[in-house]
């Protein structure tokens, strides 16, 4: 009888020890996940497609971006911090005897903001804007540039190879001052694509 009781107690102690070990392992995994920087995910901006084609009024740019945001950026927007993204485009003509000629240098700024009263996100370019109910919808529209007029018909010489340069970046200079300081120390706020370069021949 004593042996059976001792065996039962031993089994219970072993089960309790195993449960405690599992609990500690789960807690350790949670602590590791919390301590990992947000930047371990593939946040950033990359350009997946860009073309310059002739249109009715001149030359137009179409581009697509792969945009992966940190959750902290979305949280900042919902707390009232607007985000400004700048798309920069250049057309340059290499010259061996002097600096490259750059007949086209343009930029376009997109602003993402949130209205708590309406529970709506807003994407605006200048005086134009569009409202959305979900942040993902804002990103989907921001990730596509369509029919951006970048040059008039006669601005580019025929049969001349131009180098097109394109990039998108988060303009941290337009953030509120406390967030500008945070942007210097956190990779969550340093969103910028590499310059995407290709050849355009009218």
From TrEMBL:
This is DUF4390 domain-containing protein. InterPro entries: DUF4390 (IPR025500). It comes from Usitatibacter palustris. The lineage of its organism: Bacteria, Pseudomonadati, Pseudomonadota, Betaproteobacteria, Nitrosomonadales.
């Amino acid at each position: 009888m004593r042996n059976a009781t001792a065996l039962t107690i031993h089994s219970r102690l072993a089960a309790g020890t195993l449960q405690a070990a599992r609990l500690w392992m789960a807690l350790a995994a949670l602590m590791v996940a919390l301590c990992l920087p947000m930047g371990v995910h593939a946040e950033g901006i990359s350009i997946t497609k860009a073309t310059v084609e002739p249109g009715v009024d001149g030359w137009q740019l179409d581009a697509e971006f792969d945009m992966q945001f940190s959750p902290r950026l979305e949280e900042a927007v919902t707390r009232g911090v607007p985000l400004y993204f700048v798309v920069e485009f250049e057309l340059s003509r290499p010259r061996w005897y002097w600096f490259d000629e750059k007949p086209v240098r343009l930029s376009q700024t997109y602003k993402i903001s949130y209205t708590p009263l309406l529970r709506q996100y807003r994407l605006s370019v200048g005086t134009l804007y569009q409202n959305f109910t979900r942040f993902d919808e804002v990103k989907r529209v921001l990730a596509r540039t369509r029919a951006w007029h970048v040059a008039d018909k006669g601005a580019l010489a025929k049969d001349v190879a131009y180098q097109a340069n394109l990039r998108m970046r988060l303009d941290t200079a337009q953030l509120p001052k406390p967030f500008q300081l945070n942007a210097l120390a956190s990779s969550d706020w340093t969103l910028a694509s590499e310059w995407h370069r290709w050849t355009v021949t009218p």
